[in-house]
Give the backbone structure.
Amino acid sequence: MSVTQLAVIAVAFVIAGIAKGAIGMGLPPIALAILAFAIPLEDALAIMVVPSMATNIWQAIWGGGFWKLLRRFRTMAASSVAALIFVAVTFGQLGSQRAIAWVGVILVLYASLALTAWRPAVSQITERWANPLVGALSGAVAGITGVAAVPFLPYMQSLDIDRHELVQGLGVMFLFIMGALTAALAIQGAFTATNLFGGIGAIVPTFMGVWLGQKARHAVSAETFRRIFLVGMFVVGLQMARSLL
């Protein structure tokens, strides 16, 4: 890797880590959006796996409610894993130039929805059938783009769940989705020694970003910080989606 690529990796994971530490999500789409400026998407996805899994393990376990949340979201986790592997193996779109553009579309759609005042509410009774459906749809999207964002994140925010359990629940789901993405990338032969070492090296800047994000969360309101990074995600998404025009 060139010095420029290494610098882009470091910057990407510090910024993505800040979002992860501040609001518990955003690491994969933000990291991929920045990495795409200097690194092919398939390589960027492979590099992202190690730091993303490390932060997701921490996020899923921290708080003590892992098994409770796993029972609640087990059908969503199972359907997302199955759909992701099936779509990735069947269509083989991970890492293609068209997938880069669709990542941008997903970022724009998610940021647009998240920036509105509209917040749907899903009851726990509705969860029984909605969880596996949302999991399958999210897994299918991730199987093409490598990003678990729509409809998974808006759906999780609409549940009857307090903010601490929401952050930990996101960690649980990201853990399973990233595990499936890792398997799909391995099947496609995306992992190389360079990518693995790049991913291991990205752990340090990622957790530096997580630490900064936690500090920022206490310095400004979570809603203010959330809006700042969503606007940035929207702009970067537009840039990535230009090839579809």
